Amino acid sequence: MKLVVTGGAGFIGSHFIRYILNNYPDYRVLNIDKLTYAGNIENIKDVENHPNYRFLKADICERGIEEAITDYDVVINFAAESHVDRSIQEPEAFLKTDVMGTFNLLEISRKKGIQRYIQISTDEVFGSADEGQMFYEESPLNPSSPYSASKAAADLLALSYYRTYKTPVIIIRSTNNYGPNQYPEKFIPLFITNAIEDKILPLYGDGKNVRDWLFVLDNCRGIDVILHRGKEGEIYNIAGGNEKENIFIAKKILEYLGKPDTLIKFVKDRPGHDRRYSISCEKIKRLGWQPIVSLEEGLKQTVGWYKNNEDWWKKIKNGEFLEYYRRYYEL
Ligand code: NAD
Ligand code: DAU
Predict the structure, then answer these.
(1) Which residues does the annotation mark as catalytic?
(2) Would you tell me how many other CB atoms lie within 10 Å of the CB of residue 51?
(3) Which of 4, 5, 6, 11 has the most ligand 1 atoms within 8 A of CB, as the residue to mutate?
(4) What atom in ligand 1 is closest to the CA of residue 79?
(5) Digit-coded pLDDT (tens) for 114-137
(6) Which of 3, 22, 30, 120 sits 20 to 30 Å CA-CA off 245?
(7) Whose CA is nearest to atom 30 of ligand 2?
């Protein structure tokens, strides 16, 4: 199988490419990534000389990438602007990449007769879940942020390509991923790296917002199952089954690092902050998938990775991230 993976220098995409090359020795992968602030070639350095791997630095919005996508079977679109807080500050890039970039990839896939187009989406398109409420694949979309609205728009566009042109589209919506190589603007890596440096952990609002944590390799295994056994025109949710309040995760991180809870500082809430995400993943379970990494095991492994890879995140935190962090957190 020949796969085009977009956004493969980011967090989830880089784990997915490594997973595919390790598990399918005959598969070929073309990674198309613009290398935005979130893209990091270091994430995928270990496979750069793999005979079945090729990298193209390009924007998914460019029509010109069509030429490189000749003779491929599958397109898996991970490329996106992915951070909610940035979408609240500067939404335009989200519209460009998440909507127009998806549109460009769908057009190319349609013209090239791609056999499978997988759109990597998110549980955030359903919006906030009330207590006791759970969203299913067919639940209505109700996004809260420019990020989740742009992802919802991309999903609807992709589904329209299936209905109108029979482009073989599949949508995958997962819960919050965590693990090694996640950019330190996101909650778990921000809190781990701040705690290592004895800096405050800025917890939004009352700290009781709930997220369902999915270890990144369990997500990769789920995408693999859908790639091979999923049905075109369908949507599949992938959930970690670990719904926790943010304050619980913050305290666990401090416990694993042997740091005091006094590092936690309650700060101004995120505008439009979704209270809780909760999705059912019975549909993918019927294809034979289930998460295998417990939250405790995954979180300990993640904390260990950041402890052992200070060079990786210090380079980021002392670079582009520094200005963003000071501006955003008004430090
Ligand atoms: P990330 O921000 O770590 O990586 C995004 C990657 O896309 C980067 O390598 C970046 O350089 C690349 N990119 C951005 N704009 C591009 C463009 N115009 N052209 C080409 N490449 C571009 O993101 P992530 O956390 O790995 O998320 C990957 C996908 O999974 C996204 O589509 C996101 O919406 C979705 N998702 C993420 C999570 C999560 O918890 N991280 C959960 C559910 C869904
Ligand atoms: O649910 C899937 C989504 O998860 C993905 O689609 C997004 O790409 C990904 O960024 C993530 O979105 P969240 O907004 O849930 O993740 P984030 O890491 O930004 O925040 C997780 C929770 O932690 C959220 O309730 C906000 C809170 N938070 C976050 C930061 C960065 C804090 O309390 N303090 C912080 O400094």
Answers:
(1) 123-124, 147
(2) 8
(3) 11
(4) 7
(5) 999 999 999 999 999 999 999 999
(6) 120
(7) 187
Residues 16-46 pLDDT 10s: 999 999 999 999 999 999 999 999 999 999 9
Out of 3.40.50.800, 3.90.25.10, 3.30.1130.10, 2.60.120.10, select the CATH number for domain 180-211+242-271+294-320.
3.90.25.10
Q: What is the mean pLDDT of the chain?
A: 97
- Domains in the chain: boundaries: 2-177+213-238, 180-211+242-271+294-320
> Which ligand has the nearest atom to the CA of 42?
1
pTM of the predicted model, to two decimals?
0.98
Residue that the structure tokens 């935005």 belong to: 36
b vs e for 293-326, b when ≥16 Cβ sit within 10 Å of the residue's Cβ? bebeebbeebbebbeeeeebbeebbeeebeebbe
What count of other Cβ atoms lies within 10 Å of the Cβ of residue 18?
A: 21
| pLDDT tens, position by position, 295-318 | 999 999 999 999 999 999 999 999
φ/ψ (deg, to 5) at 148: -70, -30
CATH class of 2-177+213-238: alpha beta
Centre of ligand 1 to C-alpha 261, Å, is 31
| Confidence category of residue 331, pLDDT binned at 50, 70, 90 | low
